[in-house]
Each structure stands twice: as structure tokens, then as C-alpha cells.
Design a protein that fits this description.
About 30% of the residues lie in helices and about 15% in strands. With about 375 residues, it is of the alpha+beta class. It has two domains: about 100 residues, Four Helix Bundle (Hemerythrin (Met), subunit A) (Up-down Bundle), CATH 1.20.120; about 180 residues, no CATH class. The strands form five sheets. A four-stranded antiparallel β-sheet has the order 1-2-5-6. It has a four-stranded antiparallel β-sheet with strand order 7-8-9-10. Strands 11-12-15 form a three-stranded antiparallel β-sheet, with no helix packed on it. A hairpin with a 2-residue loop joins strand 5 and strand 6. The protein is elongated, with a radius of gyration of 26 Å. The N and C termini lie far apart (about 95 Å). The N terminus is likely disordered.
Length: about 375
């Protein structure tokens, strides 16, 4: 009689088969995703050639595979709903003439799904964060993702509650945006800045929040205005951006505050992708954009900024940091073509884009630079 099979070995075998099953499910899902993408691309080719029957057949086959992908266990309910809607829309589109068909929205959804499927399998995509300044010793897959290092070690626990506690404040209701959901361009990878400033001199810090454009699935711009939250006291805020003339809508990136004209009122400089804003405080709760008149409108992709007296003449000068030269056509047509550590596709850049020079504006003391 042989030795009894150890209990821990049974568990190990069970986990082994479970892991193999998960791997097989992931591989099947990735193959189905690839087949759906291929049929969408071929449908676009058929549409361009006026082959209606082939176009209709390929769209129906793509829809069938997308429906199948919506049943994958690792897919969140929200994405399952998106997949089901996409499949339904493709079936409807299959009944219409092929002219004008574009697979881009469906392909972007399937690319997001690919990332979900791969991320659900840790052997394929180990976590990497942008914490380390030391470049990882491995082949570069391209883009800024290749320079990301491992996450830091967790700090030792003190065993008790933190002495610092945070509380969410109601009233800050406006969302900020930065491009589309799929983040196809490096321009969409950033975020927007805020400024804590007492714009009305009532002794309470107000909040100015900058937003960028939102991009829909067709890469069309949807403007979202910046917000100015007046501090009402008692942790209550009200958005008064429209009344103050600060509800500008651009591809905003950053903001800095300072009294550039020496009138004792805090002014705001907002950096954008495109012309920047210099909002002069009028002293009555309103602002006027004087960037062009002051000579600081700039252009290109401006990121951060700072007011400071560089030459000690008593006037605040302005430094504007810029990032890279990226055209709007490159943003609209951008695709995630680089592979992050064998996992999902990521956006290109900053490697490959020319760097943009920073700008220093010297204050002349007469309201211009």
C-alpha cells in the first residue's frame, strides 16, 4: 500500500488546475478579442470597396464575438454593458449601406477589453508604478511606460490610527476632464491643476480648478469650463466661475496665482494646450483675460507656471514650463501602438516627439511682459 496523498498536495493540485483553467479562459478571451478586431478591420475594407454582403457578414460575425466577450468573468458589469451595446449597434449597422462606416469606436473598446483580460492574469502583466527614478534593466518596449520601476515598500505600521484625518467637502461638484476614456494620446495622460487663492480678499481660501477638453469616441472635443469655488465658510463652497468671468473652456493643464500688476489683487495665469490665459483681477469679484495684451498668451503645450521676481525689481515675472511639440492632428489620430511589458497597448511618447522650450517672461512693470 502506498503512502497517502498529503492534504496540502491535494490543495496544490486543485490550485494548479484552477490556474490552468484561468489561463485557458484568458487565452480564449484574447483570441476572441483578436478575431473580433480582425473582422471589424476587414468590414472597413469591405465598406471601402462597396462590398455590402461581405460588409454585413463581417459585422455580424464581429458582433457575435463581442457578445461572447461580454460573458467573460473578469469583465466588470459596466464594460459588459458597453460590449453588449456595441454588439447591438454593429448588428444594426450591418443592415445599413456600408458607406461611411468606421470601426474606430469598437476597436478602442476592444483594446480596453484586451487590457482587462491581460491584467486579470498576473503572469502576463506584473504591476509597475512610476515611483522609481532608476530605469528598469530590461528591454524597452517604448514610451514612458518603459521607464517605470517597481512600487515602493509599504511604510511600517504604527499600529494606531493616523493623527491626520480627511473629510470630503460637499459643493465641489464639477468634474474635470482630460481627453477620452481610452487615453490614446500622451496629451490625455496628464491632469489639471488647481489654485488655492483668496480671490475676493475675504480672508478665506477659494479654489480654482482647471479642466481640459473631453474627447468622445469619435475624437470630437467636448468643452468643460473651469470652476471657481468661492469659500462661503463652514466648509461650504459655491461655483461662481461664470459670474467671475473665469469659466473659460480650453485644454487646461495648470494654474498659478500672483499679483502681476502690483495693485494688491491676486491674478491667475492658466496654462493650456493652445493659447494661455492671464486673468487680471478687477477687484469687484470679476476677472478679465489680458494674456494677449500683456504678451504672455504663448501657445503650444504649456504645463506648469510660476510667478516670481527673478531680477529683484519688485515686479513678478512669469516662468512657463512646456512639454512637447504635438499637433492636434497627432492627438486626434493617435493610437496606442506600444506594448507595455508584454501587456496592453499604451500611448506613444514622449520619445519621438520634439521637446518644447520653456518660456520666461520678464515683467516690464507696466502690465506687459
Amino acid at each position: 500500500m502506498g503512502h497517502p496523498f498529503p492534504r496540502f498536495s491535494l490543495f496544490a493540485v486543485g490550485f494548479l488546475f484552477l490556474g490552468l483553467g484561468t489561463l485557458a479562459d484568458t487565452q480564449r478571451g484574447l483570441e476572441t478579442q483578436k478575431e473580433a478586431c480582425l473582422r471589424l478591420e476587414r468590414a472597413a475594407q469591405a465598406a471601402a470597396g462597396g462590398k455590402r454582403a461581405e460588409f454585413s457578414r463581417l459585422l455580424k460575425e464581429a458582433a457575435q464575438r463581442i457578445d461572447s466577450l461580454a460573458t467573460e468573468a473578469v469583465v466588470a458589469p459596466e464594460m459588459k454593458k458597453e460590449l453588449t451595446i456595441a454588439a447591438t449597434e454593429l448588428r444594426k449597422r450591418a443592415q445599413a449601406p456600408p458607406a461611411g462606416f468606421s470601426p474606430d469606436a469598437s476597436l478602442r473598446l476592444l483594446e480596453r477589453l484586451e487590457a482587462v483580460l491581460r491584467a486579470g492574469h498576473p503572469e502576463d502583466l506584473s504591476f509597475q508604478g512610476s515611483y522609481s527614478q532608476t530605469k528598469v534593466q530590461e528591454p524597452a518596449y517604448g514610451g514612458h511606460a518603459s521607464a517605470m520601476g517597481p512600487p515602493p515598500e509599504a511604510p511600517p505600521s504604527t499600529g494606531g490610527p493616523s493623527p491626520v484625518q480627511f473629510e470630503e467637502v460637499p459643493g465641489l461638484t464639477e468634474k474635470t476632464f482630460c481627453g477620452g476614456r481610452t487615453k490614446d494620446s500622451i496629451l490625455e495622460s496628464g491632469g489639471s491643476g488647481i489654485a488655492l487663492v483668496d480671490f475676493d480678499n475675504d480672508g478665506r481660501l477659494d479654489i480654482y480648478a482647471v479642466s481640459a477638453f473631453e474627447l468622445d469616441d469619435k475624437r470630437q472635443r467636448i468643452p468643460h469650463p473651469n470652476a471657481l469655488y468661492r469659500n462661503l465658510g463652514g466648509l461650504k463652497f459655491k461655483n461662481v466661475a461664470h459670474e467671475a468671468g473665469l469659466d473659460a473652456a480650453a485644454w487646461g493643464n495648470g494654474v498659478c496665482a500672483g499679483d502681476f500688476n502690483g495693485d494688491g489683487l491676486i491674478d491667475l495665469y492658466v496654462t493650456n494646450y493652445g493659447p494661455n490665459f492671464l486673468f487680471k483681477n478687477n477687484g469687484d469679484g470679476t476677472f478679465t483675460d489680458v494674456a494677449a495684451a500683456a504678451g504672455v498668451e504663448g501657445g503650444g503645450w504649456s504645463t506648469g507656471c510660476a510667478f516670481f521676481d527673478a531680477n529683484g525689481d519688485g515686479h513678478l515675472d512669469l516662468y512657463v514650463a512646456r512639454y512637447a511639440d504635438v499637433t492636434w492632428d497627432q492627438v486626434v489620430r493617435a493610437q496606442r501602438t506600444l506594448t507595455w511589458r508584454g501587456g496592453p497597448k499604451v500611448m506613444a511618447g514622449p520619445v519621438g516627439f520634439p521637446g518644447a522650450a520653456d518660456v520666461y517672461y520678464e515683467n516690464r512693470g507696466d502690465g506687459t511682459f
